[in-house]
Amino acid sequence: MKKTAVVILNYNGEKMLQQFLPSVIKYTPDDIADVIVADNASTDKSMDILKEQFPSVKTLVLDKNYGFAGGYNRAIAQIDYEYILLLNSDVEATEGYLEPLVEALDKDDALVSVQPKLLAQKAKDKFEYAGAAGGFLDKYGYPFCRGRIFETVESDKHQYDTEIDVLWTTGAAMLVRRKGYLENGGLDDRFFAHQEEIDLCWRLASRGYKLRCIPTSILYHVGGGTLDASNPRKTFLNFRNNLCMIYKNAVDANKILFIRFFLDYMAAAVYLLKGETGNVKAVWKARREFAKMKGDLKKDRDENLSKTVCNPDGLADYSILIKAKLMGKKTYSDLVK
After folding, report:
1. In angstroms, how far apart are the furthest CA atoms of the chain?
2. In Å, what is the CA distance from 126 to each residue of 110, 122, 131, 317?
3. Are 77 and 179 in contact (CB under 8 A)?
4. Helices marked H in 207-307
5. Residue 22: how many CB atoms within 10 A of its CB?
6. What is the DSSP string of 153-165?
């Protein structure tokens, strides 16, 4: 039996499947892994296209749209492979992308998840926003990457071609041990979409697992394939889920959330000055929704803290807001000098 499954979650993504699935099939060695499309009850022609154009691809059809987190949780629970690659439907594969990732897990039992170097599909000399060359968090819960600080995305000049342990691996292309994934709760399906992989990885790292970026593996990601960066729905999910993640995982969550109250409304003020009233409302709605969810999240926080055995290295002791916005440190290399 094959050790690895490449699982692509799909919802009404027939165009993406037609554009990107051929590269995944071509560059996924069939003696190493199966390619599986898990479908979130699409209403377009996705399943017909898979049957007619990609008969080698296995399919798993869910009964409704469970979102990114819920969809993957249900799919991974139903298939039996040692390693699972969570792969976005808007990812273009390259030759030899899978082997270094699998090899890394084979060699180090302490590793629970690895990611490739993720570059932009539309500008292949640049890193991709959602993961780049490995993810971290600053002291106030803001995610950043080697290759991406806030809106600043670097060109890939091979400056981050070394392997490095990270706090989080990107959900766009995350190879994870199925056992570790399931035993530690998987993705939180209350998040629906956005930052749920960071929440999971923070949980894993706090429990002593290692996560790593393997830059010899390269994939190209479109990004924003579901929601545009300026979409208020995306703003809502990012702000709400980030607050939930902090509350669930941070030892000093109350202190961080106190400061975030002011930082979030500063962000809303910036949106207002830009005339983005939809995003202003999204920030307010996100904070209100988080307040409603805290009671339900309390048991998760208690469990996470009880199982925490270390303070992960990928949690920075500085604010990237201060370093990037006030001190002009726009790249990861500048941050860590």
Report:
1. 57
2. 31, 9, 12, 27
3. no
4. 232-249, 253-273, 277-307
5. 14
6. E-B-SSTT-S-EE
The distance of Cα 331 from the centroid of its chain, to the nearest Å, equals: 20
pLDDT digits (tens, 9 = 90+) for 96-129: 999 999 999 999 999 999 999 999 999 999 999 9
Measured in degrees and rounded to the nearest 5, phi and psi for residue 186 equal: 65, -160
State pLDDT tens for residues 247-304: 999 999 999 999 999 999 999 999 999 999 999 999 999 999 999 999 999 999 999 9
What stretch of H or E contains 137? Answer: strand 135-137
How many CB atoms neighbour CB 331 within 10 A?
Answer: 18
Token pair of 36, please? 């599986």
pTM: 0.93
> Distances from the Cα of 94 to the Cαs of 17, 99, 217, 278, in angstroms?
16, 11, 8, 38
Token pair 């000399």 in the structure block, residue: 125
